[in-house]
Write a structure and sequence with these properties.
The structure holds two protein chains of two kinds. Chain A is α+β, with helices and mostly antiparallel strands. Chain A has five helices and five strands, in the order ββαβββαααα.
Chain lengths: 151, 279
Amino acid sequence: MKTYTGTLNVNGESRMVTVRSADTLLYTLRRMLGLTGSKPGCLNGDCGACTVNVDGWPMKSCLMLAVEAVGKKVTTIEGLADTPIQKAFVEHFAFQCGYCTPGFIMNCHSLIEQHPDADDHTIKEWLESNICRCTSYFEIEQAVKSVLKKT
Amino acid sequence: MLSFDFDYFRPETLNEAIDLFQFLDQQGKQPMFFSGGTELITLGRINLAYTEAVIDIKDIAECKIMQVSGDQVLLGSTLSLTKIEEANLFPLLTKTASEVADHTARGKITLGGNICARIFYREAVLPFLLADSQVLLIGPNGKKIVPINEIFQGQLGLEKGEFLVQVATENRFIRAPFFSVKRRQQWDTGYPLITIVALKVNQQIRVGISGLCPFPFRSKEVEGALNNIGQSAEARVAGAIAVLPQPILDDVEGSAEYRLFVLRNLFFDLLAALDRVQV
């Protein structure tokens, strides 16, 4: 097995990991670091359930090798405790089954950071990256807009 | 999840990357240059891609360049499509690239990765074909600058051990009026059906198409028919349809007949948008 040992910065903590070079960031977060908030869905970069934030931008963690994340700041849903967007999802009931929710929240969080004045076009462009089987799209839109208005 | 193992290298210079490739190739490792890596990860997952050595070129300075230099815009091959979109140095490219995959995925997909991809869409190449851009390649025999219209014939004609470093585009093409539309079979998020891009330069319309044939293309014959302004729009479109490259794709996303129907309407939209523009 070809392995790689390095330090990942996840949610503000440095974590030493030894991974297969072929391991995705998603697999490493869940299996090596116990951060199971990022959800495996399609594993093909289509559904967005595994979205995390890398250096301030949304990233589908199934499309990134763990070795590529060395030297970058990774934030997962576990690192967003008590953030306004998490509360907004609860207050607007922006989910049903909740499986896609961490990915949506991570994408919304990145959008709020990068474009706090995002218009409808930008919101749609960004959030098209995630799929909700329960079709909570209207409530998700209300949730992200409620936070964008406050920033 | 990839079922095979590989060594991972992250060279910091162009020469280091080239030397690594030759060394690993001699070892029988089937080395692969890697930037966004989305194709290796997604195709490797279903055993359609394989390597024993990944050479990640995304940290090489020349590959990350994004600047206006004299009368040219230089774009590095490892820039993500999102970075290109946010900077908006080449509006036709911005519009065309912004329709690739989805926003989050475009943060990983790179310019060079899209142009050199195995997936047949490769839409990001179209603006450069229309703008007569120049590509900088590097390989075992050193660097070379080549017109993209010479080296891109359905796919970028890279020799073994070569990779794309930069694309240079003159400002006069950057500023030209353009048209860029992607049609999908379903909604805004379905898989692409046809992408058509056009640029108007010296009163002539240039056209590039992706998703019609198993390769993206710019066709002088199609442009000749569409620029035959002495004829009606119907005759110009019919003339363009008659000289399309073959074969026309016929798959689950759309039959050949349906693709031609969509293309015909896109040609009319294109003429309506650019015919009256004076340049």
